[in-house]
Amino acid sequence: MKDALPLTGGWTLRLPDSPLGGGRVPAQVPGCVHTDLLAAGLIPDPFLDDNEVGLSWIGRTDWRYDTELAPRTTGHERTDLVFDGLDTVAEIRVGSTVVGTTRNMHRGYRFDVTGLLAADAPTPLSVLFTSAYAEADAVREKLGDRPNSYPEPFHLLRKMACNFGWDWGPTLVTAGIWRQARVEHWSTARLARVTPQVTVEDGTGRVRLDLDLERTPGGEGRRLTVLARVGAARADGARAEGTADGARTEITTTEARAETTADGAAASLTVEVPDPELWWPRGYGQQPLYDCEIILLDGDRELDRWTRRVGFRTVALDTGADEHGSAFTLVVNGEPVFARGVNWIPDDALVTRVTAERYRTRLRQAADAGVDLVRVWGGGIYESEDFYDACDELGLLVWQDFLFACAAYPEEQPLRGEIEAEARENVTRLAPHPSLVLWNGNNENLWAFRDWGWEGELAGDSWGEGYYLGLLPRVVAETDPTRPYWAGSPWSGSWDHHPNDPDHGTAHSWDVWNRLDHTEYRTQIPRFLAEFGFQAPPAYATLRRALSDAPLAPDSPGMLHHQKAGDGNGKLARGLAHHFNEAVDFDAWHYLTQVNQARAIATGIEHWRSHWPRCAGTVVWQLNDCWPVTSWAAIDGDGHLKPLYHELRRLYADRLLTVQPRDGGLVAAVVNQSAEPWTGHAVLRRIAVDGTVLAQERLPFGCAARAVATLPVPGSATPAEGSAKELLVVEADGARAFWFPARDKDFAYPAPRWDLSVATTGAGAEVTVTARTLVRDLLLQADRLAPGARTDTGLVTLLPGESATIAVHGWAADGSPEAAVEKALFCVNSAQKTTG
């Protein structure tokens, strides 16, 4: 059996002579230069104020990591030095020998160092990193430049693009040993690569295992045996003998055995599992996982072992033509799925700080919000196993971009070979995960070629089309044909249609954020909306922690630095002006921008969900942030939940009730994504501002599972168009929808009045608000009570006499809690200035 020795301790980072004055500091592996310098107290936190600007020199500096390798005492034939990730351009030295160089953050590397390790003393190991900018300059000199949406050269080397800044992220160009490093000793042969292809046919699960072997000279000519086993894991994904409730159950293990030829470098075998339990997305069924194990044997001697978990499910992409264009519908186990999705960016600008626990927390938050699909965006990274393991267990479908975003990428060497190796490695690495259901070629590059002026600027130079329509689909077809591939997002399926044609394939919708009111979402019914979003600032506690502005204002220095979008504040202002009068102060502006973000996303999702199955998915930009910033995220960079997050819980619930303008009138859309029919009666009330019921209708409805039903709103229940003094309320089985016929700035909101009570609990407090008037979009910002406090409730609209109880966690409600809560409560009625 091979021996693996982690290289996690004893590292130092050599400092440049200027500006840090030379010397060394302890280094963490995995880690990066920024985190090591922070730990040593040599740089300020780049997330605070505008510290980022003063640290730009780090990305333009060469760095060196040093440690020592233990004496070689093993009897194995071969010794390898293994790095799962080096960021990015590096030279590796063992003693005085250069054993290899790297130029790709998204790959692993293995170097044969047999004979280089001393037997009686430690051997020096050094990893020397060249500035990413220097590498980009060299590639530009060789291949010429290419168009790019941002003024940084991320497209000229294989490194996380958003390291170089984005319209939501800081420019922090990292270097370092960012994934695990180790020394491996082995003999005869090892499993160099294992690719499982998991299928289900006629009720039988099949795991085909394609293996690549590497042999030592002593292993050549030996006939070896490969043993494969597949057995049930726990229903909750844990590797143990038992079910999700802990009860033991009989484990059925099936196995297959194959022998390699004497000189074979590859092998393939298939394990069949009769009647496997199927893996389903959350909301459609359970997520059973099976342990899959490969053992490489030389006679009875074990040489190597590979263990992963797999899940049995089928996935297909329906792109069939119909009367509306051509579909884009994910089909899992034969079941068409409306994807309730979010876009994922790296959860920290310094990605090595994202732990397994943090991945699970963030993805658990996504699942709790009703999300069933997470798109890993192409300007980040192929995430760690911890990310995909959590998605497997939570039933979150994963759409994985290949790592190309918003730029033209040269197709010549040295990039082309790196990209193919990167693609093959990561398709293989992620193949075991049942949650992974789609490979996507790029983010916005096909669209950019058509609409962003690239074609003329390129003048015939390569720009990536050969990757997206040639290389990448070939790699997926050859390496893991069990999953569909799509060339890009947006992409209509061919050049016969505009790349961002909403009637074909995937679409992105950014006109609303950039220039239009969010009601314009209702003008289109895309087949699948893979990106759309609206900005809002982070939580108040996040702003106060990250910024020293006094006072805070939309245009105070720190606020502006932590707004990375072009004309971001101008777009926020224009978005507010469509609906609201001027905010009464900064706190009200902060609240109203968060309300407008939630309203915008609700307008889109409610409209598009009501048009299922024509529209088969919405993927909100974005779930998370990588630092404290004004952005499109639902969860801010400190982990605080914005009102948008709570709104997603309503919008992505299995059962959604919404009022939609349609065909010159209104309809109540009953959206049922659950597995059971939804039947009952909808109660429609036309209500005056003072709470008087002006008309009431009770309409029966029946909605099949995974379907939508629409109920025309009778004229008696329809508020007069533009009325400032009445509204429509629709209710069914606890679900509720509102329709206000006038915009907020034109609506006759009364001055808000409510009764307030606060009761302490073991976890914090319960705040009960009883409305004495109509109260629109009441919000308790718990982080104003205590920076770490949180609530389970977002925006709530109350009619006169109605109450809402809001649980607050992490707050000691002592002293005068009602007075403190009053200062943290906001509503539309009082947040905007009155006119006239």
Description:
- This protein has 17 helices and 44 strands.
- The strands form twelve sheets. The protein has a six-stranded antiparallel sheet with strand order 3-2-4-9-6-7. A six-stranded parallel sheet has the order 27-26-25-24-23-30.
- The radius of gyration is 29 Å and the shape is globular.
- The protein starts with a strand and ends in a 5-residue tail after the last helix.
- Belongs to the glycosyl hydrolase 2 family.
- Residues 203-313 form the Glycoside hydrolase family 2 immunoglobulin-like beta-sandwich domain.
- Its EC number is 3.2.1.25.
Number of helices: 17
Major sheet characteristics? 6 strands, antiparallel
Query: How many domains is the backbone divided into?
Result: 5
Which strand-content bin applies to the residues? Answer: 25-35%
Spans of at least 5 consecutive residues whose pLDDT stays below 50 are 235-251
Radius of gyration: 29 Å
What is the correct CATH architecture of the largest domain? Alpha-Beta Barrel
Pfam family, one: Glyco_hydro_2_N2
Protein name: beta-mannosidase
Catalytic activity: Hydrolysis of terminal, non-reducing beta-D-mannose residues in beta-D-mannosides
GO molecular function, one term: hydrolase activity
